[in-house]
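haha ok so turns out i had the wrong file open the whole time. this is the CORRECT one, sorry everyone. sequence first:
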Amino acid sequence: MIKKSYFLIIIILIILHGCATYQRMPLDQSTVAQKLMPPSMETIRIEAKKIKHPILKPIEFDYRDGLSPDEAAILAVLASPKLRAIRDQRGIAAAQLIQSGILPNPQLSYSLDIPTGGNTQGTINAFGLGFSWDITSIIARGAKLDAARAHAVSVDLDVAWQEWQVAEAAKMHVFHLILIEKQLALSRESEKGLMENLAVVNQAFNLGEKTALDLSAAESALHQARLSVLTLEQEQEHERLALNQVLGLPPNYIVLIQRDIFFPDWPALPSAIDILNTVAERRLDLLALKMGYESQEANLRAAVLSQFPRINIGLHHSRDTTNVITTGFGITVDLPFFDRNHGQIAIEQATRNQLFDEYIARLFEARSEVARILSDMEYTQQRLGAIEESLPSLEHLVQTYNMALEGNNADILSYYEARNTLFSKQIDVLKLKRDLTDLGIALEIATGQYFPGYDLSRSYSPEQMDRKEVTK
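then structure:
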């Protein structure tokens, strides 16, 4: 009896040794505050050199000279709280992979029968000891493992896809801030010119050389310029807060933006056919959906295999009250009269069909989106080129008026009108550059591919290429 007790104690200790333990993870104010702290730039610098991503490449992260668009993209991937939560899906997928490979536990049973009434003379205590296991769990194990592996890959790709979108969003906000700053400088200069223009018109009005309509038009133009400046200042603050949010920085954190950053115009894109033909192989969400479909194929195969009747094989050793000891085995087989797993098979089959159609639909949408972006980029480049071609003549006109004014050979109002027209065209150029930048980033997101925004046939120094400070 003592030996049996020792045996049971040893079994219990072995079972408890493999058990997980509970560790509390408090969601209190100090823990939350610690997680919301801005990241260490030195840590980001180290991590940026060894980042592993299907599209993003390691870079030399140097925050001292300001944040470049590429540095903002890497910082967002490494520091964003949103991405930190999304990456936790990998842990869930890894746990599901472990769970899919675990076989059901064998069952150990013990019974004791004590004679308590009737003719108990010569009888003894009876006992029974049994050991059984469901062997049909082995049949579908391979398919379940395949499904879990494909699902884990799908989750990795989906996380990388969301990281890519966040990185591109950070890069876009940096470009926006730089362009808005340039627009503000032009708008403020235009406002200053319109103030001077209003003073001249007002003087001419007092002399009877201008009408009240001219004065009202000058006042209206100045009002519109001031409104434009206020709108741009509000937009600048909005972009600053949006960038901080993407980067995982607090709202009051002032991000230093790198100066003299090259603005891409994507002059050397591959052909539309080449881009469209490679979308399915490059877009991470499509690859993730494809692996999800492979996982569902394995789930369906596992469901079909699971319709095999459940078989439980066991061994038993027992003694009855007459001291007769028996040893044998038993087999328990489910009779599939009612449940042949056909309901689960139908669910898995319908889910597979849904994933197939979803992949086709998303691929169609991706190709349509890429075609639309390419078309918009072409027209935007044409409009930008047309306005840029008109700038030299406008600049020459303003210079001519300025020289004529110095010799008292020109009307000052004509000079202000020409200068305001030049400012307006320059602001239009910045707006179109912003549109083109947004379209280029949208193309990178839609294709899952990084495109250099400059012409590779031009001559650039290695330092310029690395720091993205190429000037045309």
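Confidence is low (pLDDT under 50) at residues 454-472.
again sry for the mixup
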